[in-house]
């Protein structure tokens, strides 16, 4: 158990709240295990279709149920830098599986879209829902019931949460996540941000902006800032879905391939055909989820995970709430300074000690549950390592150093960057929202100013360019929730609001939409629920209403007489323009079925 009584108490209340749904979930997992997780349950015709392209020896082994079969779910495409390295993984995995006495087949592919490509574009309105679609697509691949275990090849924003939902839905199967790693460091992230703000002010042109962006995003691997993609990798390791040390090794290196081979062999070792059966649905429990949230706070992780980890937990019958996340934030100190919470990137984080050092520090203070199951077969203590390439191309692990190689990037538990984590919940008379404050200066944790209301992000962009926003204000950007338009990220708001803040104005954002995993220095109350399309109070806010955003007290209030405010008719907006183009018409059922942001904004739960 966790040595910290506050962590233990929060975990206990999650366990108690989740009992009915968790027990039903585990009953289903155990029933699926009892039915058989291998090919013995298939008819001859079923099986013949399933191994038609296998070699004669493989067919015989599968027919006799003598060897484990590993299903590969891949998000490979070669347009996106983070997923391009996966092109060669199936061949590596098949070879490693054969060496371990098993067989591997690509069970299916899932879509992988990039929020970086679609920021501010119509396609962004598909982004959040792609998470649930990815879970469904992975489910199609695994529904053939040909597999004893599964490996998941995914990295970025919605892909890993979607794959995790699938892995837990097929919780009777062991599951290992195999990452591709971050690209090598390019232009410093603060320099990229500076050029973006200069462009927003009209001080540099498109050519200069594109040059800076291209030097930042320049090769295979994830973007190097600490957004949702790299928060995903941290989560998979601290929750025990990765092999120890696997998260942040660059693509195309011998160590990256060695880790892929090792994960393959481990995935075959933990099937029901061996002695270390580790079904994902039993491996991941309330303690694992709490460990994930602790990791998010300690690293200043992505705001998107206030949606994703809630949905991931629900897939395992676990009821995690924003209150739980916020209360854990009050307990967990910030130990990492990675852009946008600092100047370093994830390569610098890894070089400073990375996940092994981070987990060691958190365990030292009792802030993590060590007694969890992992794909490695041991508790989290086994993840307090430094991973290297060993002899003959093997993976070699050494104990993580006692000191950070760069205390400006990764701190010891005794000297954190701040005493609390980066994600908090706000509540008040306009609903519930979340805010990331790890990159917000303390003097901006409380903002009280008049509202300026916008019904889409372009309206704010236009007002900024016309010079109408040179004052203190709180931007209210509404009709951006899941039912309105799929809850796109509003990342294009960051440069103009950042410019206005740098000019000395007190500014903040309140929205029922999302901000990027790179949410930064401007205080932003996001994911507000109930959303405007549901008649939420945000739809009754008017220009000039005084709003108080208090990240210290955890409150978000419109300072209007309650009777007057409640008597107002909610604003209505014609959203037809958001219903067609770039595939948005195909996602109309998702918009209709989407749940509230505090429940993960999912169509599945």
TrEMBL record:
Reaction equations catalysed: 6-phospho-D-gluconate = 2-dehydro-3-deoxy-6-phospho-D-gluconate + H2O
Cofactor requirement: [4Fe-4S] cluster
InterPro entries for the chain: 6-phosphgluc_deHydtase, Dihydro-acid_dehy_C, DiOHA_6PGluconate_deHydtase_CS, ILV_EDD_C, ILV_EDD_N, IlvD/EDD_N
Gene Ontology BP term (one): Entner-Doudoroff pathway through 6-phosphogluconate
Similarity comment: family membership: Belongs to the IlvD/Edd family.
Taxonomic superkingdom: Bacteria
GO CC terms, sorted: cytosol
Organism placement in taxonomy: Bacteria, Pseudomonadati, Pseudomonadota, Alphaproteobacteria, Hyphomicrobiales
Pfam family, one: ILVD_EDD_N
PROSITE patterns hit by this protein: ILVD_EDD_1, ILVD_EDD_2
Name of this protein: Phosphogluconate dehydratase
Known pathway: Carbohydrate metabolism; Entner-Doudoroff pathway
């Amino acid at each position: 158990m966790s040595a910290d009584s506050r962590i233990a108490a929060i975990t206990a209340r999650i366990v108690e709240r989740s009992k009915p749904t968790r027990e039903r979930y585990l009953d289903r997992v155990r029933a699926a295990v009892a039915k058989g997780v291998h090919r013995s349950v298939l008819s001859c015709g079923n099986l013949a279709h399933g191994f038609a392209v296998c070699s004669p020896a493989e067919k015989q082994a599968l027919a006799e149920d003598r060897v484990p079969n590993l299903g590969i779910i891949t998000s490979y495409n070669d347009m996106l830098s983070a997923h391009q390295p996966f092109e060669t993984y199936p061949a590596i995995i098949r070879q490693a599986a054969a060496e371990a006495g098993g067989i591997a087949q690509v069970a299916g592919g899932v879509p992988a879209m990039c929020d970086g490509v679609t920021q501010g574009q119509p396609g962004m309105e598909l982004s959040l829902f792609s998470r649930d679609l990815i879970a469904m697509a992975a489910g199609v691949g695994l529904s053939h019931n040909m597999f004893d275990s599964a490996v998941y090849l995914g990295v970025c924003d919605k892909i890993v949460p979607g794959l995790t939902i699938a892995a837990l839905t097929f919780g009777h199967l062991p599951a290992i996540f195999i990452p591709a790693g971050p690209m090598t460091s390019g232009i410093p992230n603060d320099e990229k941000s500076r050029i973006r703000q200069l462009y927003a002010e009209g001080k540099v042109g498109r050519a200069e902006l594109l040059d800076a962006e291209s030097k930042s995003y320049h090769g295979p691997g994830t973007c190097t800032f600490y957004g949702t993609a790299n928060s995903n990798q941290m989560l998979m390791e601290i929750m025990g879905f990765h092999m120890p040390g696997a998260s942040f090794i660059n693509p195309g290196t011998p160590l990256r391939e060695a880790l892929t081979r090792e994960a393959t062999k481990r995935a075959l070792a933990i099937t029901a055909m061996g002695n270390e059966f580790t079904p994902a649905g039993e491996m991941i429990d309330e303690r694992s989820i709490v460990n994930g949230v602790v990791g998010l706070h300690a690293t200043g992780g992505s705001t998107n995970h206030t949606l994703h980890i809630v949905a991931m937990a629900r897939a395992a019958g676990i009821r995690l709430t924003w209150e739980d996340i916020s209360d854990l934030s009050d307990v967990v100190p910030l130990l990492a300074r990675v852009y946008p919470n600092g100047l370093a990137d994830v390569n610098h984080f890894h070089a400073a000690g990375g996940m092994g050092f981070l987990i060691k520090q958190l365990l030292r203070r009792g802030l993590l549950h060590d007694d969890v199951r992992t794909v490695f077969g041991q508790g989290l203590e086994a993840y307090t390592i430094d991973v290297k390439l060993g002899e003959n191309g093997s993976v070699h692990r050494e104990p993580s150093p006692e000191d950070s190689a760069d205390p400006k990037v990764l701190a010891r538990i005794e000297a954190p960057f701040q005493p609390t984590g980066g994600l908090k919940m706000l509540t008040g008379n306009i609903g519930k929202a979340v805010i990331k404050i790890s990159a917000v200066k303390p003097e901006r944790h409380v903002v009280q100013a008049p509202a300026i209301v916008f019904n889409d992000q372009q309206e704010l962009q236009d007002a900024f360019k016309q010079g109408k926003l040179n004052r203190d204000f709180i931007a209210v950007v509404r009709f951006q929730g899941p039912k309105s338009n799929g809850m796109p990220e509003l990342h294009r708001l960051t440069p103009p609001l950042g410019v206005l803040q740098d000019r000395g104005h007190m500014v903040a954002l309140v929205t029922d939409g999302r901000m990027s995993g790179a949410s930064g220095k401007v205080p932003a109350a996001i994911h507000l629920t109930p959303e405007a399309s549901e008649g939420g109070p945000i739809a009754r806010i008017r220009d000039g209403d005084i709003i108080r955003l208090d990240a210290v007290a955890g409150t978000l209030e419109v300072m209007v007489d309650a009777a007057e405010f409640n008597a107002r008719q909610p604003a209505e907006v014609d959203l037809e323009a958001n219903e067609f183009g770039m595939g948005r018409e195909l996602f109309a059922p998702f918009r209709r079925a989407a749940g509230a942001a505090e429940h993960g904004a999912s169509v599945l739960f």
